């Protein structure tokens, strides 16, 4: 009998896609007992080299197999003081509903020579892979374990991954294990503490679980911070000087170098000195070629930000849709931090695949016919996945409307990356009028290039400027004072929030959308529509409870040296940085768990001691202001 | 031993300051015998150091050649040029290129410890703007006039309240960048030497040619000013939008 190899993917759809590609479409499907989604696909495949022709069973898990929880005696809410949860023993067990899947892997492993892990190639996937391995080893201690490395489910790519397996990355799996343990302990300790304490304060919270998460809270913190900035904002009047010249039938507006000042008397005096000087002198005539750069290769954060801005989908929906497009083999893996294409990747071949498209097929052809440019390289490389790009063409009528939008965005962005920058000519005229300086700018777009396919960017020619000679003098047609008012910032939008989380090191590109969804689900934040029609945006506004929690935790640490509020990103950011140290092998899982627990334990102790701060904030927002 | 005249001449020639006789006598009598035996130039240095920390109403001559005209503030005079060197001390400094509100927000960031390295928070982000996407240098970003993270460094210009040795008050406006005039570097009580300055509508126009920073501070005034700055800004915002 031929040797048997067991393959396990992260989701049923991937198992099916991989089975289809490896088998050339002919495989047998077997249901497994106890789970209607997971199937075993059987076929033969030649793995080459030492393996040769083998019979294959391809199956999958459904995400994580196991969960971590406290030992039974600590699970009840009143079973122990919440602070004990920082040390209470924990155990990892297979989730009840995943038992049939684990059984299936153990059974299949019995007859297999080797296990090929096909989970997604990221940190989470590495950990799921380690869970699969543990089950397989329990079924067959001598089974050899390999891992397929792939970043899309296109046929040739998948077959190559099957022929060139690598080893599981234990460091990454450990980083996830550390994160899971920290999330459990810190989350449970603070959730129990604040829920039990706050329930007694406000009737509205009586039956409510007030959950805490080390990503959720800083995420909420950003929303509240912006909300308070909007609320507290005081408008101020400012004054400026504008100079107008009519020349060659054109009206040129010169802008003040000081833009505007907040002192009327000073501006009036300055204008008077301009008028007294009578003549303005041209001090600079700058004409130079300018360009608008083509976008960088697409990362997950960018996809979510740009997507929620241009496609009118929330980030979680975008990720779900992108995930589906990846599973079906249309785009590459959508979770990536990389914004540089590897030299080895054949970009032209990918462009050629877009020829059949009615909307951008012609553009793709032109790129190959000579307009192709090597994409810019950004500074990020997660060493796991390429930037998000289309791997094959799909006819729009095979996609639903959301899929169409996301696929179109990914393709247009990719084609734009491979295009020439937009070119133009800019003109800057600077004048000195009295002691003040003013300037006028003009732009002529000469070649649109990438803008033709990347419809999301705007770059338009401005009004044409008349001719000016360096050193010439003229008397302006008009010089006036204008008055304006400062305006409050807007409430936070989802794309901004993703940008802030990314910039402040909260969450990974893969989890940001989940955290945002969480704080909405917990009713810490609500959404509100600003504007209408195509320009409308969803704003994030905290609920009273959301504001109370942030203010309460901020007050807990007020005046304490070196202690930072849980509503701020630092603690979580440090934790994320330590995860990276596990991944690179410079720290062990145990070290990181201990260090991170110590940091959070300190805040926990402060919170317990100053719990009244938290209670007062809840009273203030949920009792007093609710009735007033 | 150096005579008071020698010291006064020394201070006048190095710093263009005419020191008041009683103050100089006080200074000399307060110095110990050993100090008095040092060369006049060294003693003059000590005197200047004390002078910069003093209130010039007490330490400098009130002669009209080195004080402001009493009617300097008259707003109906469009322009006049003052003659000579006039020392003044700074009683207040404001950044009029930055809104009060963003100055308050900057102070609050410092209060929350966010100016500490590693504790900075990114609060605004330009969605969809590749920071390098255009070869144009972005003038708008420097023009919005928001105060920086570190606390107060707005872009100015600054509006100062100045006082001469006779106690006359006048507003100074920084028409061109003057080295050392920033909210965090310029202390209250710092001395400034005005040289043939132009006064327009009652405001002294400060430029690198007309104003030289001598430095110094009046500790008591400076502390009160800094402690009360946020409260003053808040108070002003209440009426600024009207």
CATH superfamily of the largest domain in chain A: Topoisomerase I, domain 2
| Cα-atom radius of gyration of chain B | 21 Å
What is the CATH class name of the largest domain in chain B? Mainly Beta
Nearest-integer average pLDDT of chain B: 84
Element-level helix/strand string of chain B: HHHHHEEHHEEEEEEHH
Predict the CATH topology of the largest domain in chain B: OB fold (Dihydrolipoamide Acetyltransferase, E2P)
Assembly category = heterodimer
CATH top level assignment of the largest domain in chain A? Mainly Alpha
What profile does the largest beta sheet of chain A have? 7 strands, antiparallel
What structural category characterises the helix and strand content of chain A?
A: alpha+beta
Number of helices of chain B: 9
Strand order of the largest sheet of chain A: 14-11-12-13-10-9-15
Class derived from helix and strand content of chain B: alpha+beta
Q: Count the strands of chain B?
A: 8
Domain RMI1 N-terminal (chain B): 12-59
Biased composition (Polar residues) (chain B): 134-151
Domain RecQ mediated genome instability protein 1 OB-fold (chain B): 69-229
Protein name (chain B): RecQ-mediated genome instability protein 1
Task: Record keyword descriptors for this entry.
heterodimer, A: 628 residues, alpha+beta, Rossmann fold, Topoisomerase I, domain 2, Topoisomerase I, domain 3, seven-stranded antiparallel beta sheet, six-stranded mixed beta sheet, 41% helix, 21% strand, B: 242 residues, OB fold (Dihydrolipoamide Acetyltransferase, E2P), eight-stranded mixed beta sheet, 9 helices, 18% strand
């Amino acid at each position: 009998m031929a040797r048997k190899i067991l393959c396990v993917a992260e989701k049923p759809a991937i198992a099916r896609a991989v089975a289809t590609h490896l088998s050339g479409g002919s495989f047998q499907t077997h249901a497994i007992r106890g789970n209607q989604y997971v199937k075993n696909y059987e076929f033969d495949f030649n793995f080459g080299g030492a393996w040769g022709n083998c019979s294959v069973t391809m199956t999958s898990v459904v995400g994580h197999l196991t969960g971590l929880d406290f030992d039974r005696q600590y699970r009840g809410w009143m079973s122990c003081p919440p602070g004990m949860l920082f040390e209470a023993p924990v155990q990892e067990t297979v989730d009840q509903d995943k038992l049939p899947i684990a059984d299936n892997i153990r059974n299949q492993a019995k007859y297999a020579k080797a296990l090929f892990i096909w989970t997604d190639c990221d940190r989470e996937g590495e950990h799921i892979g380690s869970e699969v391995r543990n089950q397989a080893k329990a079924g067959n201690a001598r089974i050899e374990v390999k891992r397929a490395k792939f970043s899309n489910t296109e046929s040739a790519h998948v077959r190559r991954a099957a022929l060139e397996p690598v080893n599981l990355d234990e460091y990454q799996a450990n980083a996830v294990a550390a994160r899971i343990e920290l999330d459990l302990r810190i989350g449970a300790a603070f959730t129990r503490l604040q829920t039990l304490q706050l329930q007694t304060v406000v009737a509205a919270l009586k039956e409510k679980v007030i959950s805490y998460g080390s990503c959720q809270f800083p995420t909420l913190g950003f929303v509240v911070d912006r909300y308070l900035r909007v609320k507290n904002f005081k408008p101020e009047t400012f004054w400026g000087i504008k100079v107008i010249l009519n020349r060659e039938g054109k009206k040129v507006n010169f802008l003040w170098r000081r833009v505007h000042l907040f002192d009327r008397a000073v501006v009036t005096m300055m204008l008077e000195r301009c008028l007294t000087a009578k003549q303005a002198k041209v001090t600079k005539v700058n004409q130079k070629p300018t360009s608008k750069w083509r976008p960088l290769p697409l990362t997950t954060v960018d996809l979510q930000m740009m997507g929620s801005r241009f496609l009118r989908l929330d980030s979680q929906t975008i990720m779900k849709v992108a995930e589906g497009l990846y599973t079906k083999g249309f785009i590459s893996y959508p979770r990536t931090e990389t914004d540089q294409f590897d030299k080895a990747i054949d970009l032209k071949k990918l462009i050629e695949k877009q020829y059949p498209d009615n909307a951008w097929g012609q553009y793709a052809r032109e790129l190959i016919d000579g307009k192709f440019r090597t994409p810019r390289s950004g500074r990020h490389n997660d060493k796991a996945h390429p930037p998000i790009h289309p791997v094959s063409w799909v006819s729009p009528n095979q996609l639903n409307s959301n899929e169409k939008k996301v696929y179109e965005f990914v393709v247009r962005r990719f084609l734009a990356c491979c295009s020439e920058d937009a070119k133009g000519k800019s003109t800057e005229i600077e004048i000195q009028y009295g002691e003040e300086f003013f300037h006028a700018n003009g732009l002529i777009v000469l070649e649109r290039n990438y803008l033709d396919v990347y419809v999301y960017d705007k770059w338009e020619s401005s009004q044409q400027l008349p001719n000016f000679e360096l050193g010439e003098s003229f008397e302006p047609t008009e010089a006036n004072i204008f008055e304006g008012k400062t305006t409050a910032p807007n409430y936070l939008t989802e794309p901004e929030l993703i940008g802030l989380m990314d910039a402040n090191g909260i969450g990974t590109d893969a989890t940001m959308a989940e955290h945002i969804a969480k704080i909405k689900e917990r009713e810490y934040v609500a959404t509100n529509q600003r504007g209408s029609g195509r320009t409308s945006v969803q704003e994030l506004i905290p609920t009273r409870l959301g504001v109370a929690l942030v203010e309460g935790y901020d007050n807990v640490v007020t005046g304490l040296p070196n202690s930072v509020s849980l509503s701020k990103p630092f603690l979580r950011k440090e934790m994320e940085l330590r995860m990276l140290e596990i991944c690179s092998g410079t720290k062990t899982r145990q070290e990181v768990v201990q260090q991170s627990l110590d940091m959070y334990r300190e805040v926990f102790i402060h919170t317990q001691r100053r719990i009244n701060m938290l209670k007062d904030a809840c009273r203030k927002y949920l009792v007093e202001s609710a009735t007033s | 031993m150096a005579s008071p005249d020698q010291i006064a001449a020394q201070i006048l020639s190095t710093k263009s300051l005419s020191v008041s006789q009683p103050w100089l006598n006080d200074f000399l009598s307060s110095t110990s015998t050993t100090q008095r035996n040092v060369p006049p130039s060294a003693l003059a240095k000590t005197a200047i150091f004390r002078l910069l920390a003093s209130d010039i109403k007490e330490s400098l001559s009130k002669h009209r050649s080195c004080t402001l005209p009493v009617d300097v503030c008259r707003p109906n005079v469009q322009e006049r040029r003052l003659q000579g060197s006039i020392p003044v001390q700074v009683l207040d400094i404001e950044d009029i290129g930055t809104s009060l509100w963003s100055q308050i927000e900057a102070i609050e960031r410092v209060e929350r410890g966010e100016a500490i390295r590693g504790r900075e928070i990114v609060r605004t982000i330009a969605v969809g703007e590749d920071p390098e996407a255009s070869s144009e240098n972005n003038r708008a970003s420097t023009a919005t006039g928001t105060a920086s993270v570190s606390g107060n460094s707005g872009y100015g210009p600054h509006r100062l309240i100045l006082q001469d040795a006779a106690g006359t008050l006048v507003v100074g406006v920084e028409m061109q960048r003057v080295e050392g005039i920033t909210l965090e570097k310029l202390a209250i009580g710092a001395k400034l030497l005005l040289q043939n300055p132009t006064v327009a509508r009652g405001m002294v126009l400060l430029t690198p040619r007309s104003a030289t920073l001598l430095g110094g501070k009046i500790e008591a005034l400076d502390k009160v000013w800094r402690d009360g700055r946020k409260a003053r800004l808040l108070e002003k915002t209440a009426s600024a939008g009207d």
